[in-house]
Write a structure and sequence with these properties.
Elements (H helix, E strand, L loop, with lengths): L20 H10 L7 E3 L5 H21 L7 E4 L2 E2 L2 H9 L10 H8 L4 E6 L6 H18 L6 E8 L2 E2 L11 E10 L2 E5 L5 H6 L4 H5 L3 E5 L4 E4 L5 E5 L3 E9 L3 H10 L1 H4 L22 H7 L3 H4 L3 H18 L10 H5 L3 H4 L6 E4 L7 E5 L4 E6 L2 E6 L2 H10 L5 E2 H6 L7 H13 L4 E4 L2
Antiparallel strand pairs: 1-10, 2-3, 2-4, 4-5, 5-12, 6-11, 7-10, 7-12, 8-9, 8-11, 13-17, 13-18, 14-15, 15-16
Length: 440
């Protein structure tokens, strides 16, 4: 049975201008191409600040309605991290009102107490938010590229003083772009790497280390950038909110590990979970049968050089990431949001106008050997039998303009049934490949 989630995606005004490109150019210059911490002042105007604040609270509203803290939603109340029971009783029960920028909900939920909220992957649940961030980041990506581990967001809200996590380093390869939404100001203390050993041996002694840190102060509308591998701690005296974007660069080893782990799903290596391996004997030749039995179950694996197999898996990983413009969290499907079912609802698209949202191009790769097309849409991969009309559909959609589905269907060759085209469109639509409106 399909789980229907409360949708937050039709409730936001998305006519907000992206972050100014000139500010991102300043960021590249002052950070020496993302290698050095810096602050860029007065980047966001009031309209953008309001949009980001409301977007964040809309995601919290979604979390409260669904009582789902699975995506790194953490709350600290007077310095104590709330367990799930406390979240249900004290936070999830206080559902933010639609349109709240956070001020009312925070006052009602936490009153005058010190609190902190840390929330990951807001981009998964809010199309307006991820659309605006993606358009804003596009000029930056053209110059610095998409990091191999992609992007994700973390939101920080509160009046918690020093960051509840204490002095810490983030995960390896993670640089961060901090959009400060205010209203309170914030300070970030960042240590040069030459102090790593001293901090590592006595990380809890903040006062001892603070004099050696470099202080960065920023306020409402400013952005702060910090490269990876630096110990740091934030401080906020009054209430403030921040939306941070993490640029995650894999180490070469972790990238290889990720690609290798994708082979199981890519080649559908299944059915061996309960098949016990054969023992090894010291007086017999080495046998590869335990592994060969699994590999030979899939002809694509058994008949191809391993380097070719690995290259295909890496290409899948890269194209899926690019199709989602670097975001590692794929959006909720339309089925999850509304109960849309491809098999029963695909014909409803016939009376729609559809448009791919900038900058989320749909990508594809043709396998002549397998006579298939692999389609990459918003981080997901769809495989369909090859037909030239599939490529024509994708190319038309990638114009980023509204187009009537009836017009797309009218161009089909006789060899490609209209229902097949509608079904393919429904597969793309379910993965958030395009938006659809009623035809006038």
């Amino acid at each position: 049975m399909t789980t229907k989630y409360e949708s937050i995606n039709e409730k936001m005004d998305v006519s907000v201008a992206p972050l100014p490109e000139a500010a991102l150019e300043d960021l590249i210059d002052q950070s020496e191409e993302m290698k050095k911490s810096c602050v860029i002042s007065s980047v966001m105007d009031n309209e953008q600040l309001t949009f980001f604040r409301k977007s964040i609270i809309d995601v919290i509203r979604y979390i409260c309605i669904n009582k789902n803290a699975a995506y790194g939603f953490r709350v600290f109340d007077n310095g104590t991290k709330l367990d799930h029971e406390a979240l249900v009783q004290n936070v999830f029960s206080q559902i933010p009102r639609t349109g709240d920028d956070g001020s009312k909900w925070i006052s009602e939920t936490f009153e005058d107490r010190n609190f902190g909220i840390i929330m990951n992957t807001s981009e998964k649940f809010s199309k307006p938010l991820v659309d605006l961030l993606s358009i804003s980041l596009e000029p930056l990506l053209m110059k610095v590229g998409i990091p191999s581990g992609g992007f994700h967001t973390t939101t920080f809200i509160g009046n918690y003083g020093y960051t509840p996590l204490g002095i810490h380093k983030d995960h390896p390869g993670a640089s961060v772009l901090h959009l400060h939404l205010g209203p309170g100001k914030k300070k970030m203390y960042v240590w040069d790497r030459k102090y790593d050993e001293a901090i590592k041996s006595d990380r809890q002694n903040l006062e001892k280390h603070l004099e050696y840190a470099k202080e960065y102060s920023f306020g409402e509308g400013d952005i702060f950038f910090m490269p990876s591998e630096h110990y740091h701690i934030g401080f906020t005296d009054g209430y403030s909110a921040a939306l941070t974007i993490w640029f995650d660069s894999h180490s070469k080893k972790s990238l290889l590990t990720k690609v290798l782990s994708s082979l199981e799903s890519r080649y559908e290596i299944q059915g061996f979970d309960n098949e016990i391996t054969q023992p090894f004997f010291t007086n017999k030749p080495l046998s590869f049968s335990n592994i060969d039995r699994v590999l030979s179950s899939n002809q694509q694996l058994s008949d191809r050089p391993f380097n070719d197999v690995l290259w295909d898996a890496f290409e899948d990983f890269r194209l899926a990431l690019i199709s989602n413009r670097g975001w590692t969290s794929v959006p909720l499907t339309v089925e999850q949001e509304t109960g849309f079912e491809i098999d029963s609802d695909y014909l409803t698209l016939k009376d729609k106008c559809i448009k791919v949202v900038t900058p989320f191009s749909i990508l594809y790769k043709v396998s002549q050997e397998r006579k298939q097309i692999a389609v990459y849409v918003r981080g997901a991969k769809i495989e369909v039998n090859y037909h030239s009309e599939i490529i024509r559909i994708i190319n038309q959609l990638n114009n980023f303009k509204f187009i009537e589905v009836t017009y797309i269907l009218s161009q089909f060759e006789n060899s490609f049934p209209v229902e097949a085209g509608l079904y393919f469109l429904a597969m793309l639509y379910n993965k958030q490949g395009f938006e659809a409106i009623d035809r006038n």
